[in-house]
């Protein structure tokens, strides 16, 4: 490899590096907020850790998917489950899915974690899919760092986002760009019947992210069917701070970005 | 003896009778094959189930040296195959049918209007109509002419089906109205094979041969404007053993690389023995697939596979039932209101879901029984135990009563009262009480204490 001109090297390299570092720092310090990746940018591979006895993992994954996906996009979305997760938390129920995704779910039931990983990777290679959701329980040894790296690379190369739900799993080594811990949170009482369960609410912790600072939020999804309704249409719209419907009401932290 | 005679009666008359069970499907398939073979006497042929064939010989007879010679040739052809036939040539299909089924004596053929001598049974009519005509005393087609069109039209004015309307059949017989026939079209499914000089024993060579075969097959499919839905790969070993591998595609495909990739999943555990000498690739189900034209002005196509190819790959590896799509089904019972079907099949027609029904994000495969603390008979649940953990109920909404489907279930099936609940931690579940105490239902018809079940989990 030919050496570059020694006279040019000192003049260009420091400026480039400085610019890169500034960009990296601003990206790194930018706090995550709902609606950041509406344009399809952002991390294509996320992991959501959740307990198996609740559907908060799948709920948060769907909310994040709705937050990211283009509402005009009518391509199907893939939902991969192992038999074990289907037994633990049940299968997706069409009438309970968000209306935007109801007719678009393609479900894969894999016998083992290895088959599920194969299905996930094939799904990421498919250009006709809007996104891929995976549910894997525990820490199977097939899902090691190499496997998660393969998934990340495939998701980045083909531009198909992946939300991998890890049920009852330890926080093992992974190359996911954003890693969430999700748990159910008590919901806000609905307006007309305060004794009834309200809109879904999650205690979400972003404990590792490549482009964002970690943080904790309480997220809730507007609307009964997980759809992202415009805040003007909602009677209690005054309390919602964000137009996409994912609202965080974190305690002491600032709500503004940066 | 006639059709419909009992076997015992027939055996009484002829004890040496050979008996074979009836097989209508096989008979129909044989008739189809015969119809295709009969196209040697005319450009197209049609079926006349259960036992007839119609061949269009318009402008053909001179090739055989006249109509009589054509009929002789047909008779010889069927005789060589030991099939008894009644033959007739006529200007219309109806007349040919009538003459073949009700042959006229030789003397009557030379009369001025031989068709008028035919019995009314030659009109291809339903037995009920034939009975009516017989009771009216109309035995021959000439009798119908004598009655007159007006009378026939008045008597059978409500019969739209040709087989029930003698006037329509009469016009078809005379060629006054057109009678469209559905010709039999042979479907030649592509089949390609390679006989190998040197038997192959290694997988790399087999894949090479498979790739060549896939290329050949795709060329054949392209020529027919079709795409393969089901493919069969046959491997003939030197010692005569045959291995068949088949696969089915979610959508018609004409992509050799895709076909190769799907089959290479299935070549893993093939025992080549002393070598494979013949490889044959066959399409057993093909669908129309018009050749598409690439859009030159469109931006570069995005990388990745298509949805159909993706589904094929998953179905080959995980089994055909693994890839599905939830579709609604007409039922009130939650677990019955959803079915799973192959992802590319069209969704069944459905009603809009009721907006005020809150349904869980996930439904357990089988509702799990839980122990619930509640005020009998129909109070709100206060706490419940599920999978060994106790959940305090903080919020509750309900009941939503779903009655059993009486047209499907036994009278002892109990109703369900569904509650949406949220526990102290914010976890949301869908539970139901199966019955009410004293409702006189249940397995013992006593209406004992109802059970509680957890069926779904909300987001």
Walk me through what this model shows.
The complex is a heterodimer of chains A (258) and B (459). Chain A has 258 residues and is an alpha/beta fold. Chain A contains five helices and ten strands. Chain A has a single domain (43-248), classed as P-loop containing nucleotide triphosphate hydrolases (Rossmann fold, 3-Layer(aba) Sandwich), CATH 3.40.50.300. In chain A, 26% of the residues lie in helices and 23% in strands. Chain A has a nine-stranded mixed beta sheet with strand order 4-2-5-6-1-7-8-9-10, sandwiched between helices. Chain A starts with 8 loop residues before the first helix and ends in a 10-residue tail after the last strand. Residues 1-13 and 224-258 of chain A have low confidence and may be disordered. Chain B is α+β, with helices and mostly antiparallel strands and 459 residues long. Helix content of chain B is 28%, strand content 26%. A six-stranded antiparallel β-barrel of chain B has the order 9-10-11-12-13-14. The longest helix of chain B is centred in the middle third of the chain and has 22 residues, at 203-224. Chain B is extended and about 100 Å long. Strand 3 of chain A pairs antiparallel with strand 9 of chain B.
Topology diagram in text:
The complex is a heterodimer of chains A (258) and B (459).
Chain A: H1 9-29, E1 45-50, H2 56-68, E2 77-82, H3 83-89, E3 91-92, E4 105-110, H4 113-125, E5 131-137, H5 145-158, E6 162-167, E7 178-184, E8 201-209, E9 215-221, E10 246-248
Parallel strand pairs in A: 1-6, 1-7, 2-4, 2-5, 5-6
Antiparallel strand pairs in A: 7-8, 8-9, 9-10
Chain B: H1 7-13, H2 24-37, E1 45-48, E2 52-55, H3 61-64, H4 67-80, H5 93-101, H6 106-109, H7 127-135, H8 141-147, H9 149-155, H10 166-174, E3 191-200, H11 203-224, E4 226-237, E5 242-253, H12 256-264, E6 276-288, H13 307-318, E7 323-328, E8 338-341, E9 362-374, E10 381-386, E11 389-402, E12 416-423, E13 428-434, E14 451-457
